[in-house]
Request: fold
Amino acid sequence: MPSYFSRLFGAKTAARVPEAKASRTASMVAMHGPSRARWTPRTNEALTREGYERNAIVYRAVRMIAEAAASVPWVAYDGDSEVADHPLLKTLSAPGGNQTAETLLEQLYTNLMLFGDAYLEAVTLDGIVR
Reply:
């Protein structure tokens, strides 16, 4: 074995024989040119399309969480006592049109998970929230 100084100052060593590898794929070469990264635009629509609509696993996970959260019953309290006939509970049970409370809350929770925020607007007609 050559010493450290002989390797450092160029003493001649025996020439190495290159290793010969046997491979069935040696003749196959994958060629592609350099390309740039394609980033999804940072808009809610584009991120939702790429991450939620086109990914079945994410879509199903978000749907399962939203459906489970929407199935939890709402309860209203006035201080420590439960209020069974609160106007908010009546409004949530029949939000309007053909929409049910479950579909409204599923949409609310889905927006909350996808965008980080969700809003409901209270509209009053004749002083009553509709």
About this structure: The radius of gyration is 33 Å.
